[in-house]
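Ticket opened by: R.M.
Priority: normal
Category: complex prediction / small molecule

The reporter submitted a protein together with arginine and asked that the result be attached to this ticket for the collaborator who will pick it up next week. Submitted input follows.
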Amino acid sequence: MSEKLWAGRFQEKTAKSVETFTSSIDVDRRLYAYDIQGSIAHCKTLAKAGIVSSKEARKLTAGLKEIKQEIEAQTFEYHHALEDIHTHIESRLAEIVGPVAQKLHTARSRNDQVVLDVRLYLRDAVAAIIRLLGRLQKVVVSVAKRHTETVMPGYTHLQRAQPVLLAHHLMAYYEMFSRDTERLQDCLARINVMPLGSAALAGTPHPIDRKYTANLLGFKKVSANSMDAVADRDFMIEFASAASIGMMHLSRLAEELIVWSSSEFNFIELPDAFATGSSIMPQKKNPDVAELVRGKAGRVFGNLMALLTLMKSLPLSYNRDMQEDKALLFDAVDTLNACIDITAQLLPKIKFNKARLQAAASHGYLNATDLADYLVTKGMPFREAHHCVGQIVGYAVRSRKELHALSLADLQKFSDRIEGEIFDFLKTSQMIDRRTTIGGTATRAVKAAIRAAERKIHKTSADKK
Ligand code: ARG
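Result attached by the on-call engineer:
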């Protein structure tokens, strides 16, 4: 193993405990492919500027590729003394290609190198998450499509409010996941900026063409201020924020599945393969997958908070504190990926208890608002209608009956505007199908929403081809 890169000005060796404490190799080794990709591009840029000859550039590039193979073949050795992945690769390169390796670090510092690596990594990671979210949306739509006739209670305050189609309820999540996708696409624009050439913090005196490097690596922009470029972690925070919002959505869905699978609700049955038993209570079938999605949301929020806290007091430009960013970022990426994936696997296997959902939608006075609306169509002002139906509900509660189980004569005691047609009017299916405005729960509106979603999914997959 070679000497430390920065050993020049030191007389004492670094303490072993300090090497272990300051090393980040266990975390950042997963950036190896991006570090090599970045170094190869940097090498070409140096050749273009005449800082290395084309022969040297070829030698360096071959050496870097060899290191990549070693890492992938797991023959590469890691040592805490070499701190991080950048130093590991650079020092191994020196062993393979000899002194020419020392030229590679011209016009570059680990400060711009590490941001480059993370930007390359996160660009791929975000693209992969967007694809996975697309798969989840497809699943949501296909399950919704099977349930355009399944009726259920819609809730506010977790109290039964008005009947809706299960498809409508599910498609609400499709919308949330669409916004999550848009947020990730937005943050890609800020990730896709090339920092190399900022060097330690002030830029470099060497005549490199930064736009050329950006082109080689597929970046849309080069960073405009070298100090900002090495100090900026906004793009990670922005991602963690988008990831947190996405996790919040997954967690709400998970919470609903947990509640729905309880015997109190009994709306769904979870697939055996996705539930777990209890070590003591033989009757139990626990919704652990959904619970863990809900729990892991907290972790991702924590990563966001930790990143914000990490950055809030750091003076410009690079500070070693920032090394802590990667563990948080990787954890956010991994957790979000895992949760989207498992949710997409779980959803299509859930059995919805249609009879129970339907029964729940027709008990608990979910048609009270419609009765008021009915009175409005008969010329009664809404506030008065609201009051009148309130009295009817009170009466019905006392007689332990639903509104639609009261007799016409009973109803007419409260208002002579009520006629025999009211019983059809209060049918769940009619209540649902009257809500035909865009975004409403009418079968027609929900089917239109599903068709629109399918067109969008189709278009996105065609665009990718
Ligand atoms: N391992 C470091 C990090 O992750 C790389 C940058 C090191 N720069 C430095 N000046 N020590 O932040």
